Amino acid sequence: MCYDGGMTAEQKASFEKNLAKMNEGLADYERVRRCVVLDRLFSLERGELTRTLKLRREAVEGVHRGLLRSLYETAVPQAILEIVPGKNVHGAHLA
Question: Residue ranges per domain, the chain?
Fold first, then answer.
């Protein structure tokens, strides 16, 4: 998961192109199959980061549990990108 800051169609296409390029040199089991781009940064205030700005994995997994589960529900033949609005981050279901 990473921050998109409101990606345009051009930025999304560029991101997907770079992701595909990155996947070229990887073995099948190493490739990124699904990627979710959040519309906000992880924050200290929401408990997702420590004071030294390290990710609090348990907190992020708790907040985004439904979203993370949906990434593994079905197999995906190629790398895809999902942009999730902040209001749908909790329990969002990806197609």
Answer: 2-88
Q: Which of 15-19, 30-34, 82-86 has the lowest mean pLDDT?
A: 82-86
Which secondary-structure segment (H or E) carries 29? none
Q: Tell me what pLDDT residue 58 has.
A: 94
First to last CA, the chain: 17
List the beta strands (DSSP E) in the chain.
Answer: 2-3, 34-38, 80-84
For residue 53, give the DSSP letter. -
Tokens encoding 1? 């998961």
Are residues 94 and 64 in contact, defined by beta-carbon separation less than 8 angstroms?
Answer: no
Residue 22, token pair as written in the block: 């990155």
| Encoded tokens for 69 | 């589960």
**Total length of the chain:** 95
Nearest-angstrom CA–CA distance, 43 and 64? 13
Which phi-psi region, left, alpha or beta, contains residue 78 (left: φ > 0; alpha: ψ -120 to 50)? Answer: beta
